Amino acid sequence: xxxxxxxxxxxxxxxxxxxxxxxxxxxxxxxxxxxxxxxxxxxxxxxxxxxxxxxxxxxxxxxxxxxxxxxxxxxxxxxxxxxxxxxxxxxxxxxxxxxxxxxxxxxxxxxxxxxxxxxxxxxxxxxxxxxxxxxxxxxxxxxxxxxxxxxxxxxxxxxxxxxxxxxxxxxxxxxxxxxxxxxxxxxxxxxxxxxxxxxxxxxxxxxxxxxxxxxxxxxxxxxxxxxxxxxxxxxxxxxxxxxxxxxxxxxxx
Length: 253
Known about the structure:
This protein is an alpha+beta fold and 253 residues long. It has three domains: 14-70, RNA-binding S4 domain (Structural Genomics Hypothetical 15.5 Kd Protein In mrcA-pckA Intergenic Region, Chain A), CATH 3.10.290; 72-153 and 234-246, Alpha-Beta Plaits (2-Layer Sandwich), CATH 3.30.70.580; 158-231, 2-Layer Sandwich (Pseudouridine synthase). 19% of the residues lie in helices and 28% in strands. The protein contains six helices and 18 strands. The chain has helices at residues 16-22, 28-36, 64-71, 143-150, 170-177, 211-218; strands at 14-15, 40-42, 45-47, 53-54, 60-62, 75-80, 84-85, 94-95, 124-125, 134-140, 158-165, 181-182, 185-186, 191-196, 199-204, 222-231, 234-235, 244-246. Strands 6, 9, 10, 11, 14, 15, 16, 17 and 18 form a nine-stranded mixed β-sheet that branches. A three-stranded antiparallel β-sheet has the order 3-2-5. It has a two-stranded antiparallel ribbon with strand order 1-4. A hairpin with a 2-residue loop joins β16 (222-231) and β17. α1 (16-22) packs across α2 (28-36). The protein is globular, with a radius of gyration of 21 Å.
């Protein structure tokens, strides 16, 4: 097979970059870069033409140079303070990413990676955290990490410590765990329990806009503080607000 091979018009094919993304090999943008550099092989044959379509069951492998490039990509974990937006800048507010620098690097980061401006290139938030919330937020250069956290099929747990005011009935407590809808769509089941008399813990597998605050409003509670303490297997730990660290090789979401 060559990169320009004609396929049977009756045979279902898929864009190579899309297939690579769906299999978690890399992001679609990274796939295009690897294809252009000739670092992608389909059933053992080098493919270097963008837009190439292949059999969905084809064997796709990456050149060692692509793997080394991926190994150099960094993922950054931050304890976001209140007042910083997680994504695009908003009038009057700075982005959480603007806090990343040598001076805010967590001194107990065990990776021993030295901060470099190159680590900011292509760095993007993998998920969001409301401007008035604190806690764990992820920035990554690695499309595989981003897809695992925010892809349509992502089921990674996110855990929150939520301070509330108001009275919560038994029925309301049950609804927090299952039965509420937002924007006309039912929410996935959640795990909720009392941490103490004025704090709840939530474990969610989705991330609708201001989801926990809106859930609480529906059952008569007002959120006065919200902190994300875990994403998958990665814990926030004791890292101070406004500081960040690199994700270690032995960590995974």
